[in-house]
Automatic annotation (TrEMBL):
Chief location of this protein within or outside the cell: membrane
Stated name of the protein: Integral membrane protein domain protein
InterPro entries cross-referenced by the UniProt entry: EamA_dom, EmrE-like
Pfam families: EamA (PF00892)
Intracellular or extracellular location(s): Endomembrane system
Range of residues in the leader sequence: none
Domain of life: Bacteria
Family per record: Belongs to the EamA transporter family.
Length: 320
């Protein structure tokens, strides 16, 4: 029983840490899109930024996998069915989800995008209930409902008269569908492999699909080369990809430990962290936004179903 509790609490901690790091990733992507040469391209800049983000992430993860001495395990995983299930999840999460996410950031900003896309656990929970027969307890349902409701309120107070808001909203919904589907599909694949290996396959698949399919469709190779030649921009993309890679590592481990529904409910805290980190990056600030952000994080903890045990685990980490 104790081992099961510790296993669950690790999943909770990984989920929240992944959300915090994705908040950093989101703010940094917004900064990248405002830098030269990407700022001069409306349509293809988010696609190029996403490709370079996932490509750099693939490199970071290969280095990590090498240090963990899991390269042989990584290559042998392609003999399993789970690897191809993860590849399918990668298409939903990368080319569909991340494209929608970064395009939405371009049109409506990092804060609003994070807020809207934070609804993806609700879609994922619906899929989880249909395909995985997962059920949240009453406290978990309350926590997830509180989180989604708070993100909606935060979205209304963060609104504005941006003429591109509908386009941005559509891309954010595309992200919701992609990420919610990815979480559920990847949980099937990770039944046969380590979450770290699954993530390596995910990022590599996403980068390849962008390189071979999406960039040629939008004639984005030239902008890729121009961005690679711009040292400040590619350096920031690499740093952003590092934060994103660690975030994904935490998220995938959380899915493995506690299942996609609860993992998504915890990961949704990135919308609140984006508001916090965005303030330090010069974004608009209000007390109301911070209060709602705190409510979002509280809802994420409640989604785990055992907030008292979770806080005990946090205290344990601090003592260590």
């Amino acid at each position: 029983m104790k081992n099961n509790t510790e296993y669950s609490l690790k999943g909770d901690a990984f989920g929240l840490l992944g959300g915090m790091l994705w908040g950093i990733d989101t703010v940094l992507i917004g900064i990248v899109l405002a830098m030269s040469p990407l700022k001069n391209y409306v349509i293809i800049a988010p696609l190029v930024a996403t490709f370079l983000h996932d490509f750099c992430s693939t490199i970071w993860l290969l280095i990590y996998t090498g240090f963990q001495k899991n390269l042989k395990l990584f290559f042998s995983s392609f003999k399993t069915r789970g690897a191809y299930v993860v590849m399918l999840a990668a298409i939903f999460g990368g080319p569909l989800g991340m494209t929608g996410y970064v395009q939405a950031i371009h049109y409506i900003g990092a804060g609003n995008t994070a807020i809207i896309s934070a609804a993806y656990p609700a879609f994922g929970a619906l899929l989880g209930r249909i395909f995985l027969k997962e059920r949240l307890n009453r406290l978990g349902i309350f926590g997830l409902t509180l989180t989604v409701a708070a993100t909606i309120v935060l979205g209304t107070v963060s609104g504005g008269g941006n003429q591109n808001s509908m386009i941005g909203f559509a891309f954010a919904i595309m992200c919701v569908v992609g990420w919610g589907s990815e979480s559920v599909i990847s949980s099937f694949g990770m039944r046969e492999m380590l979450p770290d290996i699954a993530l390596q396959i995910r990022q590599m698949t996403s980068a390849i699909v962008y390189l071979v399919v999406i960039l040629p469709l939008f004639k984005g190779y030239r902008l890729v080369l121009n961005t690679l030649m711009n040292q400040p921009t590619i350096l920031l993309i690499a740093i952003t990809a590092l934060a994103g890679s660690i975030s994904y590592l935490m998220y995938y481990r959380s899915i493995k430990y506690i299942g996609p529904t609860i993992a998504m409910g915890l990961n949704i805290s990135f919308s609140a962290w984006t508001v916090v980190f965005g303030f330090f990056a010069g974004s608009d600030f209000s007390i109301l936004k911070i209060v709602i952000a705190i409510i979002i994080i509280l809802g994420c903890v409640l989604t785990a179903g055992k907030p008292q045990d979770f806080m005990e685990q946090i205290s344990k980490f601090k003592r260590e």
